[in-house]
Amino acid sequence: FEPPVFGDARGFLQQTWHQRQYAELGLSVTFVQDNHSRSGRGILRGLHYQLKHPQGKLVSVIRGEIFDVAVDIRRGSPTFGRWVGEILNDENHRQLYIPPGFAHGFCVLSDVADVYYKCTDFYAGPEDDYGIIYNDPTINIDWPVNKPILSEKDLQRPTLATAAPNSLPTYQD
Question: CB within 8 A of 111, min separation 6: which ones?
């Protein structure tokens, strides 16, 4: 999504969410939680998802620049294992929607990045925290960082092929 930005020499105004306008573009969801994260250059977060309380996420960058990724991990989906990635930053004002059932990750390309995202379900805690390793060879994401900085938890994630089948969402046509 590329929301309109109204600016002049004093700065700008951007509507980051307008329910009717987004519904006209095909995104008709209800958001219940907003999150704000800050990370430094080279940090890679992901690929994360929730299984019992899947979250759709509308991702924006308030400051800095990231490469944002969504991966379809729904068993039975015609696009299973495929990914999309977009550069989001505080100048292009783009937003990426990550549907429920998709894994999400991003890496920081600027010195610091503030990432803001709206969620369609509440975070249910660590017992509903799942992930896929960022460098899964079958997904083959073209990350624009050579040596990403990851959490210990994210370094221990399974590949899509080795993830327990009951730990992946199911495609609903």
Answer: 40, 41, 64
Let me know if 117 is a catalytic residue. yes
* Catalytic choice (22, 49, 97, 117): 117
Reported as a single tens digit per residue, the pLDDT across 23-68 is 999 999 999 999 999 999 999 999 999 999 999 999 999 999 999 9
- What predicted TM-score, i.e. pTM, was given to this entire model? 0.95
Other CB atoms within 10 A of residue 161 CB? 11
Buried b or exposed e, range 117-145, using 16+ CB within 10 angstroms: bbbbbeeeeeeeebbbbbbbeebebebee
